[in-house]
């Protein structure tokens, strides 16, 4: 791992998959089995969309568009919505699917994919549980701060200031990139990123995990 995260990241933030299953998957209305089944169904339903993704490369990611495109909706006992983020040249870079739950503390689960990473989110009244692959890394709260899974300490942050053109993204107090302020975007199809530092794989995964939350408008835990 790189200098920003280091081995301390593994010890204090990335918790093994057993903890992920016990802490992340259980919910209050639907039992753990139901959530696992829902996630499995979402992944299966997204397989064809994932196959269309453009490889997530250094050249492509800087072209990610700010626009979130909804591609499908299904209603029933639970509401399901799918969508994607493309490059400014309309090449799909991120696909996602949500499933909403009526009543109770669990509001929705979200599964998102780039060509090389998967992200799962569990939205409750307390915050957004964030998992990268099989690892539960922490809870993203209304203050736009990610609190790590083990010690509940501030770990990463999106510093929103709607008077500014870009929102800095901090990891362990260091700016690793920034996100465009959609209220300040003047182009028809604006880029999502104004700055990307040279990140290692783990740092970038955290950055993209927060990017997806922000671009999907999941603040205020709606």
Features:
23% helix; 6 helices; single chain; 222 residues
Describe the structure.
The protein is of the alpha+beta class and 222 residues long. Helix content is 23%, strand content 33%. It is built from six helices and twelve strands. The protein has helices at 6-12, 17-24, 32-45, 47-50, 58-61, 201-215, and strands at residues 69-74, 80-86, 92-100, 106-113, 118-124, 128-132, 135-140, 145-148, 154-158, 166-171, 174-180, 193-196. It has a twelve-stranded antiparallel β-sheet, with helices on both faces. The longest helix is centred in the last third of the chain and has 15 residues, at 201-215. It is globular and about 40 Å long. The N and C termini lie far apart (34 Å). The model is unreliable at 1-30 (pLDDT under 50).
Question: What is the SS-derived class?
Answer: alpha+beta
Strand content: 25-35%
Helix content: 10-25%
Low-confidence stretches: 1-30
Give the N-terminus to C-terminus distance in angstroms: 34 Å
Task: Describe the sheet with the most strands.
Answer: 12 strands, antiparallel
> Strand arrangement, largest sheet?
1-2-3-4-5-6-7-8-9-10-11-12
Query: Can you count the helices?
Result: 6
Beta-strand segment tally: 12
**Rough shape?**
globular
> What's the alpha carbon Rg, rounded to whole Å?
17 Å
Report the average pLDDT across residues.
Answer: 82
Order of helices and strands: HHHHHEEEEEEEEEEEEH
